[in-house]
Amino acid sequence: MTTRTHRLSLAVADVSWYTTENLFRELDDPDVSLLAMRCMDYVNGWRKGVFPWSPSCRQRREGPRLWTRDLTLPPGWMKRYPSLGMRPIARAVRQFWRLDGGSRRGLVMTYPHYLHLANQLAPEVSLYYNLDDYTLYWPGRADEIRDLERRLVAKSNATVCVSRLRAEELRAAVPEASERIHHIPHGTPRPFLADQPLDRPADPPADISHLPRPLLGYVGTLEDRLDWELLDRLSVEFPNASIVIVGRTPDASQTSWYEKCSRLLARPNVHAIGWRPQAELPRYYQAFDLILIPYLIDHPFNRSCSPTKIMDGMGSSRPIVATSIPECQLYDELFDVAATREAFVGAVDATLRQGSDDGRAAARHAWARAHSCAAVAAGVLATLNLDAAERRSS
Asked: CB-based contacts of 386: which residues, under 8 Å, 6+ apart?
């Protein structure tokens, strides 16, 4: 049965990352219906417990204007055989457009390879939503990815980059589309926004309640992007503090930096508690005396990224100390951004001397509230300039 007609039927390819899922799930516009798709190959689907016959692989309504669907695809569907691999996604999108009955058919694309999907679907409205420098994902295909991305940017009604550096790079690479390329950082997901500013940390979850304060917390995967020497120094400089790491730990095969990681994890005041579900993370952020963003300043990924932990952390309103990667520099009035390891250690020390209250909790909380995922999603949608697009096509 056809639902009521919306002004725009928007399919998102895809929401496999929490960042895009959190963002588009909170889009609240009465004129827009949305299909959030998770696209994965059979192997990744199996690891997640998703199979072609799973209920989630059928279009499901999860809200008044929100539908979801998982798609499991053959290995190589994106990079090696995109023309064939995109066909099941295209069929799912057409089905959504047909059943929803939207007056305009829109497509959001999160990887350059979805240019092949756009060519198959020919949407009336299209958006390229850029999360990273994808040439760093597949360096052996860097030239191919740059070409796909430039063509996708030129073809799309709008491009949104979560990183300012990436927006600047794409404006330089595709000057004819520069006015349609926007920098819109991540928003704070609703569950991560504290009820009120927290001048003092909240009670900790049970698994870290026994640790001595102050709790210096890092939330994220342990990987080569971290400044291991800085973290090791923190553990030495603050022996009475507990450094809490919430995220996946590496295995010994990652030898280039595993030795540094192992040395850190062996410290008596370092506590790596492993991965925790997204729904549980807000409690950790709010319980920390201080939140750490200890990324290597010169790492290529860190230069081009927009860490989600910025807005997740600001939603908690707790103090943050970060290294001066480009995206963190945009918020140096709301939390401490350190250009050197010495400055980082000094900022941590100064905050702890103030009782873990840097006086900016209210400012961070207000910023996070004003830049919630719902607000950011509305801003992303606004870049499509639907009124102008509708006038042009009439």
From this structure: 7, 8, 104, 125
Q: How do beta strands 158-161 and 125-130 pair?
A: parallel
Between the CA of residue 257 and those of 138, 261, 341, what are the distances in Å?
Answer: 20, 6, 18
Place of tokens 């009604």: 157
Side-by-side strand order, sheet with 66-73: 60-61, 66-73, 32-41, 8-13, 105-109, 125-130, 158-161, 181-183
Annotated domain spans of the chain: 8-187+372-393, 191-370
Q: What whole-number distance in Å separates Cα of residue 32 and Cα of residue 38?
A: 19
Q: Are strands 242-246 and 215-219 parallel, antiparallel or unpaired?
A: parallel
Span 38-96, pLDDT tens digits: 999 999 999 999 999 999 999 999 999 999 999 999 999 998 999 899 999 999 999 99
- Residues 253-283: tens digit of each pLDDT: 666 788 889 999 999 999 999 999 999 999 9
Q: Is 212 helix (H, G, I), strand (E, B) or coil?
A: coil
CATH topology of domain 191-370: Rossmann fold (3.40.50)
Three-state DSSP class for residue 199: coil
- Structure tokens, 79: 């990079």
The alpha carbon of 346 is separated from its chain's Cα centroid by a whole number of angstroms, namely 29
Neighbours of 213 (CB within 10 A): 15
The DSSP code for 253 is: T
Length of the chain counted residue by residue = 394
Q: CA 75 to CA 71: how far, in whole Å?
A: 12
On the question of a common fold for 8-187+372-393 and 191-370, the answer reads: yes
Helix spans in the chain (H): 18-25, 42-47, 82-85, 87-100, 115-121, 142-155, 164-173, 228-237, 255-265, 281-287, 300-304, 308-316, 341-353, 361-370, 373-382, 386-393
User: pTM of whole model > 0.90?
Assistant: yes
The domain over range 8-187+372-393 is classified in CATH as 3.40.50.2000: yes
